[in-house]
Write a structure and sequence with these properties.
By secondary structure, the protein is α/β, with parallel strands linked by helices. It is built from 4 helices and 5 strands; from the N terminus they run H-H-H-E-E-H-E-E-E.
């Protein structure tokens, strides 16, 4: 509740709508992705479910207390317990063949 109250009205609406849809559909990972994108427009979630349940989340903003609180709230509400998680804040990890992610001095390692 404390984390939710720190969100602005737009962010609170996004979380509330996501929770309603979660109860209706049960699509937790999809709704995590959708809600995270509404709060952090540059964010990207990569699901690695072939041999293990893992999510790689790129936030696209600097890590600070406010952003960390928002991400923690969304993960607490939407992340299924079986998933492992890695969060990348302002530096995307490199993907071979994707030039935008292969910039020197702007890559995180995975």
């Amino acid at each position: 509740q404390q984390h939710y109250m720190q969100l602005d009205d737009h962010e609170q609406d996004a979380v509330a709508e996501g929770l309603l849809r979660l109860y209706e559909t049960g699509e937790a990972v999809h709704l995590l992705k959708q809600t995270l994108r509404r709060i952090f427009p540059r964010s990207i979630i990569y699901a690695h479910c072939h041999d293990r349940d893992e999510l790689l989340i790129y936030i696209g903003q600097e890590e600070n207390n406010s952003n960390r609180t928002k991400v923690e709230l969304l993960l607490d509400l939407f992340l299924p317990a079986r998933f492992d998680l890695r969060i990348y804040w302002s530096h995307h990890f490199g993907i071979v063949g994707e030039d935008d992610t292969m910039k020197q001095d702007a890559i995180s390692l995975y």
